[in-house]
From TrEMBL:
Pfam families: TatA_B_E
NCBIfam families: tatB
Protein name, per record: Sec-independent protein translocase protein TatB
Membrane-related topology note: Single-pass membrane protein
Stretches with biased composition (Basic residues): 153-162
Amino acid sequence: MIDFGFDKLALIGAVALVVIGPQRLPRVARTVGHLLGKAQRYVADVKAEVNRSIELEELAKMKRQFETAAHDVQSSVNQTIHETSESLNQSWQSLPGGGGPEGADAYGTDPVPPPEYRHPKKKWRLKRGATPLWYKQREGVQRHVQSGAARVARFRPPRNTA
C-alpha cells in the first residue's frame, strides 16, 4: 500500500486546514475516519473469504485423497477375500468325497438333521413385571390381586369355638 509517514500526514493536514477551513475540518476528518474503517473492514472480509475458499479447496482435495485411499483399501480387501474364498472352495473340492451333497460332511456320511422347532410356550397375554419374584417375596410386595373381602378374611383372627 501507500506508505504515509508523519511528515506527509502533517502536510496533508495543513493543506486540508487551509482548503476546508477550521470549522468543517473535524466533521470531514470524522467522515474520512469512518470511510477508512469501512474500507479496512471490507478488505478484512475479502481476505477472510479468500482464506475460507482456499481452506475449502484444500479440504475437498484431502477428501478426494481419503476417498481414493479408502477405495483402494476396499478393493484390496475384496480381492483378498475373493482369493481366499477361491482357495477354500478348491481345498473343499479336493477333500475325499468331493465336498459331497449339500448337508453331508466331507466323508460322505449322512448329515445330522437340524433340531425340530419347539414353540417357546410363552403366555403372551400374561403381563410380566421386571421385578423378580424373590425380591417381591423378600420385601413383602403384593403379587396377586385380592378383593377387599378376601383380604379381610385372610387377616381376620381365628374364632374361638370352645
